[in-house]
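Supplementary Text 2. Reproducibility record for the structural model of the 82-residue chain.

All settings were left at their defaults, and a single model was retained for analysis rather than an ensemble. We include the record here because the model underlies the residue-level annotations in Supplementary Table 4.
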Amino acid sequence: MRASIVRIGNSRGLRIPRTLLEECGIRDTVELSVENGRLIVQPVRSVREGWAQAAHAMAERGEDRLLDPETPTDFDETEWEW
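Retained model, structure tokens:
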């Protein structure tokens, strides 16, 4: 598909058909980058997207244990009540 670059003030814009935006999951904000002379337009992912699934997979593999041993503090020993 070919598209024309249009003038928008001092900038340029590209009109992208709705069907392409929907197919890519693009809504209001995109991430732009250049790779090997190509303009890459990607939807912005939420900050923690996929974390819940990754944590679940880690738990199934038994990889969800603490890496460092617990180190109680004075607060834990004297002030904290369960």
